[in-house]
Predict the 3D structure of the following.
Amino acid sequence: MEFLTRCLCRRIVRRTVYKYLCRSDEDLEQEIYIHLWEKRYAYHEQEKLSAWMRTVSENFCKDYLRRKSQKYQRLTDYDTDNQTETISTDKDPEYYWIEKCRRKLVLNAVDQLPEKMRKALVLVEFEGLSYDAAAKKLGITTGTLKSRIHNAKQKLQQQLNYLIC
């Protein structure tokens, strides 16, 4: 039984990491395993183990991407006079150019969303507000906010599916 659980865990974590990063990342997988171990007491027997693992893994990946995005923003200095970017030389310059282009495409697609969807998505995904805080700021219910975000993400997925790895 323990072997099956380990295999299930490994498969779920790997798929989740690949889904969010479009590549495998063993270091991130190890961090997720540690996080799952630390959160093991939050699991309730009446829940399906695979669903719980998937949720914890997805939330960890979202947090990782949010932290990575903030770190990248801090590393990136915008020169307003020349409209150029000073970027750390840790990685291949082509990587940064591709990411910059991808980010522009995503931001343009977000700008094209209907105003209500765009505001909801920006507050939660870009500014990092909780659902409750964003709903309160917009003066709507949490359910309405979640619906708008879901619809916005579906619309973005349709517009940007060619960017997916």
The first helix runs from residue 2 to 21.
